[in-house]
Amino acid sequence: MQKELLAVKNLIVKIDDKNILNGITLQINAGEIHALMGPNGSGKSTLAQVIAGNPGYLIDGGEVVFNGKNIVDLLPNERAKLGIFLSFQYPLEIPGVNVASFLRMIHNKRFEENISPIKFRALLEEKMTLINTKDEFSDRYLNEGFSGGEKKRMEILQMLVLEPKLVILDEVDSGLDIDALKSVANGVNRLCRKNPETAFMIITHHARILEHIKPNFIHIMQSGRIVKSGGLEVAQKLELEGYKEFNEELEKTN
């Protein structure tokens, strides 16, 4: 029997008295890959931010249970320490902090270690090889002057270093060329092989990334609800017919 890792139960979320999520229910078991698709404004990124603990959203009902514990009152850093990782759509530039120092710091926090710089450098070089990233990348300042593809590689590199239990990738494929997309997918697939209990929620607009990362389930969101769940056939229908074909499913939930 598969172990339940994340259970979102009838989640209602507001911003400025406006409902953004309207009763989301979603279960992700250890080792599963879930893709979340939907048009702009459907609530995909809001769901990701709420799971990660962004305090800018008001939870007006429901639960977020991770590893058997309701985490709605936990701070983002507490959730990260439990093993929840969220990639950013628009990562911040941090001049003066190099990549290697930053990654060593978060690694030590995550695993409550004090790994030496020399030992960590060997670990980091191994991870960078997996996503086709050159050694000098680790000496650059965090995201400063990075291209869009380099920023996405940086997010995947953090993921590989932290080895989280739940990975949420929010439009990590946006704006990537095919080589960068394959590097991102290689990082995800590598973590799947190394840690088969790790679960993924991949938020995307397009099915292209799903050619390289095979999901167990695909969910379509509209108007703050999950209106359809299934396998790859859901993405295939979406590619052929667009989101308007799911309007009937949305009407059934109203």
TrEMBL record:
Signal peptide: none
Cross-referenced SUPFAM superfamilies: P-loop containing nucleoside triphosphate hydrolases (SSF52540)
InterPro entries: AAA+_ATPase (IPR003593), ABC_transporter-like_ATP-bd (IPR003439), ABC_transporter-like_CS (IPR017871), FeS-cluster_ATPase_SufC (IPR010230), P-loop_NTPase (IPR027417)
Taxonomy, superkingdom: Bacteria
Gene Ontology MF terms: ATP binding; ATP hydrolysis activity
Keywords noted in UniProt: ATP-binding, Nucleotide-binding
The name this protein goes by in its record: Fe-S cluster assembly ATPase SufC
Organism, scientific name: candidate division WWE3 bacterium CG08_land_8_20_14_0_20_41_10
